[in-house]
Write a structure and sequence with these properties.
Elements (H helix, E strand, L loop, with lengths): L6 E4 L2 E4 L10 H5 L2 E3 L2 E4 L6 E3 L1 H14 L8 H15 L4 E8 L16 E7 L7 H6 L1 E5 L20 H13 L4 E5 L5 E4 L3 E6 L2 E5 L8 H12 L4 E4 L3 H5 L3 E6 L3 E8 L2 E2 L7 H14 L10 E3 L2
Parallel strand pairs: 8-9, 8-15, 12-13
Antiparallel strand pairs: 1-2, 1-7, 3-6, 4-5, 4-6, 5-17, 6-7, 9-10, 11-12, 11-14, 14-15, 15-16
Bound molecules: ligand PPE.
The ligand Cc1[nH+]cc(COP(=O)(O)O)c(CN[C@@H](CCC(=O)O)C(=O)O)c1O binds next to helix 6.
Length: 306
């Protein structure tokens, strides 16, 4: 099934998906030397709105800095491109993928002669990341045999294409184990994150967020901590072990694509009663109300497209 991305912003111009092509000699295709973002726009009573656009654009430029990649556009131009892609495709809600990559200048491993990078922004309608079933009944996770890379191996605070081979391997392994998603530990065996999500757990009424460690500093994680505190939950940022998750009352994972997804099983052990947790589903509902513009308290997180 071909993806339907419609019109794509490609190095400054809107082009049809079929025309948005690169050479097979593109450096990033060979070496993973790209940076990207995952952003969502949601339908709201005042039209489509991009969620926490400035934070995502800032992280894109930070990722590029880590990769020594000079983006030939300003943050404002990238922000405008993101809004334009949503508007010109007429999406009510969609998933937005800005990508910058080292082009086809030369194929030595050192990408620097390839600067400046090329940039595109595509968007497509994407439903529930792990499927409705995983939300309703809770996702089933397995701990991956692939550890999350240490910070001196790959820069996990940047969204760099090559980093996601680690996530892809973990995801493939989880699928073959009949699970919905993989949990990755860090090299010392502490809980790191999912292949594309940050992890939370409830224990005794307190909400625990896994501290940043080697993980991506998730924007959804930040949003959920703020919303949870506003709902009156005590939230602590901790280092946790796999068996603490086994003993948790509830576990869930968050990300732009995953939103707030409950976890009902980890390594074939039920979490709590083995169903989607009650506080988790309350947080999921609150999060979706925020992103869909039903909670005016968080209006500054929304960038309206119309
Ligand atoms: C490794 C990782 N950890 C945490 C997160 C959550 O970050 P944030 O989106 O800022 O809350 C993501 C986003 N994963 C993106 C890519 C998913 C994909 O399949 O690609 C996403 O959720 O858009 C990660 O890739």
């Amino acid at each position: 099934t071909r993806m339907k991305a419609g019109l794509i912003w490609f190095n400054g111009h809107m082009v049809a998906q079929e025309e948005a092509k690169v050479s097979v000699l593109t450096h990033a295709l060979h070496y993973g030397t790209s940076v990207f973002e995952g952003i969502r726009a949601y339908e709201t009573p005042k039209g489509p709105a991009v969620f926490r656009l400035p934070e995502h654009v800032e992280r894109l430029f930070h990722s590029a800095r880590v990769m020594m990649m000079e983006l030939p556009f300003t943050p404002q131009q990238i922000s405008d491109a993101i809004v334009q892609v949503v508007r010109e495709n007429g999406y009510k809600s969609c998933y937005i993928r800005p990508l910058a990559w080292m082009g086809a200048g030369s194929l030595g491993v050192n990408p620097l002669p390839n600067n400046p990078a090329e940039v595109m922004v595509a968007a497509w309608e994407w439903g529930t990341y792990l499927g409705e079933e995983a939300v309703r009944k809770g996702a089933r996770l397995v701990t991956s045999s692939w550890a999350r890379f240490p910070a001196n191996v790959f820069p996990g605070k940047a969204k760099i294409g090559g980093n996601y081979v680690n996530s892809a391997l973990a995801r493939i392994e989880a699928q073959h184990a009949g699970a919905d998603e993989a949990l990755l530990l860090d090299k010392e065996g502490y809980v790191a994150e999912g292949s594309g999500e940050n992890i939370f757990f409830f224990k005794g009424g307190t909400l625990y967020a896994i501290e940043h460690g080697v993980n991506l500093m998730g924007i959804t994680r930040d949003s959920v901590i703020t919303i949870a505190r506003d709902l009156g939950y005590e939230v602590r940022e901790v280092r946790a072990t796999r068996d603490q998750l086994y003993m948790a009352d509830e576990v869930f994972m968050v990300g732009t694509a995953a939103e707030v997804t409950p976890v009902s099983y980890l390594d074939r052990r039920p979490i709590g009663s083995g169903t989607a947790g009650e506080h988790t589903m309350r947080l999921r509902k609150a999060y979706l109300e925020v992103v869909q513009g039903h909670n005016p308290k968080y209006d500054e997180w929304l960038t309206y497209v119309a």
